[in-house]
């Protein structure tokens, strides 16, 4: 039996040596999404049903484009973090590792596609 105080055990960071970093990253991304979702939805909903030129004009404004890019990056980062927790809890062994890698690749791909689309729309290409 090791004679450690509660604080010493907490600072040991457990067997993974990561502590609560993943927990806090997911909470911070959730807080960021509280602000980014409405800021993304308002210009999107305002231009819903309009033509390409109206949407391009809305996202040609740098603030709307930056918010949309930040939204895509944050939402897919948050999605991956949530998927990773679920996979780690319910899928064990090699299949779990394969699913984590696949979900990371897909979330990265979707984030890149979203960012690319916003850049294309905002630059009018």
CATH topology grouping: 3 helical TM bundles of succinate and fumarate reductases
Low-confidence stretches: none
Helix-residue proportion: over 70%
CATH superfamily: Fumarate reductase/succinate dehydrogenase, transmembrane subunit
Strand content: under 5%
Number of helices: 5
Amino- and carboxy-terminal Cα gap: 66 Å
Largest sheet: none
What is the gyration radius calculated from CA atoms? 20 Å
Structure description:
Helix 3 crosses helix 5 (94-123) and helix 4 (62-90) packs antiparallel against helix 5 (94-123). By secondary structure, the protein is an all-alpha fold. The chain has helices spanning 6-11, 21-46, 52-60, 62-90, 94-123. It is built from five helices and no strands. It has one domain (21-123): 3 helical TM bundles of succinate and fumarate reductases.
Reconstruct the topology from this structure.
Elements: H1 6-11, H2 21-46, H3 52-60, H4 62-90, H5 94-123
Protein name: Succinate dehydrogenase hydrophobic membrane anchor subunit
GO molecular function, one term: metal ion binding
Transmembrane segments: 28-46, 66-86, 98-119
Task: Name the descriptors.
125 residues, mainly alpha, 5 helices, 80% helix, elongated, iron, electron transport
Short description:
Part of an enzyme complex containing four subunits: a flavoprotein, an iron-sulfur protein, plus two membrane-anchoring proteins, SdhC and SdhD. This protein is an all-alpha fold. The protein has 5 helices and no strands.
